Amino acid sequence: MRSTTKKIRQFQSSSLFSHLSNMTGDDSIMFNTKQLEQSIKINVESHVLSNLLSYAKQLNDLLSNDERFSKDYFKEIEKNLSNFQSNKLINELINLTKYYLEKYLLSSIILRCYIQLHVPSTESGNNQGVNIQIQILKEIQDMEIIIQTNENLFIDYYKKHYQILKYLNKYPSIEDYHLYLIEYEKKIFNDLRSMILELRTIFLKTYDIIRKNLTKIQMPRNQQNISMIG
Q: Any idea what the Cα angle at residue 132 is, between residues 128 and 137, rounded to 5°?
C-alpha cells in the first residue's frame, strides 16, 4: 500500500550495500561518519530547502496555467473513455501527481535525518530547543501520512475502474454502467486536482516550518524561552 516508500527504502538499501561492498582497505577508513553527516547537512541547507519551494511553485503553475488541471479539461477526458482500458489522460495526471508525491517523500526522509543529526543527547538542562525539533519531526511525519494516504487513491482507482469495465462489458446495454464510468472518472479527476492543491500546501508548509526554525533546529541548546514558529 505504501509503494513509493517501499521503493525508496529498497533503493537506499541497495545503494548503501553497493557502496560499502566496493570499499576495501584504506577506503573503509575514509568512510567517516562525520563526513556523511556533514554531507547531509550541506545537502539540506543548500538544495533540499530550495527544492521544496521550487516544487511548490511548479505545482502552483500547474494549477494556474496548465489546462489539464482546469475544470473544462474533463471534456477531453470524457472523449477518451473506453470500455476496455484505462483512460490515458487520467493516467497521465496520475503519473504527474505521483512524481511530486515521490519528491516530497524523498525530501522528508532527508529532512528527518537532518533534524535527527542535530538532536543532542538527553541530559538535564534546557530542553526547549529539543522539544521544538520533536514538534517539527511530528509535523513532517503527519504530512508523510497524508502523502501515503493519497498514494492509496491510485490503487483504489484502478481496482474500481477494472470492476466498472468488467460490468460494462458484461452488460453493455445497461446505461447506468456507462454513466457510472463517467461519474467515476470525474471523481478521480477532481480528486487529482485537489491533491495537487494539497501538495502545494504541504511543500510550502514544510519549507516554511524548516526555514523559520532553522536556527532552533541547528542549535537547540542555545534557545531560551522559545516556541516553534509555524
A: 150
Sign of the Cα pseudo-torsion (106, 109, 112, 116, in order):
negative
Q: Decide: 68 and 92 in contact? Cβ < 8 Å.
A: yes
Q: What cell was used for 23?
A: 570499499
Q: Which domains, and CATH codes, for the chain? A: 37-222 (1.20.120.180)
81-131 per-position pLDDT tens digit:
988 888 999 999 999 999 999 999 999 999 999 999 888 876 655 666 688
Cell of residue 84, nine digits? 476496455
CA 25 to chain CA centroid, Å, is: 39
Is 133:126 a contact under the CB 8 Å cutoff? no
Cα distance between residue 206 and residue 55, in whole Å: 11
Coil, strand or helix: which one is 79?
Answer: helix
- Residue 93's CB is within 10 A of a number of other CB atoms, namely 23
What is the SS3 assignment for 85?
coil
Distances (CA, A) of 60 to 193, 200, 224: 11, 7, 37
The C-alpha cell that represents 89 in the structure block: 489522460
Residue type, 119: V
Q: How far apart are the first and last CA of the chain?
A: 31
CA distance 71 to 12: 39
Indicate the pTM of the whole model: 0.79
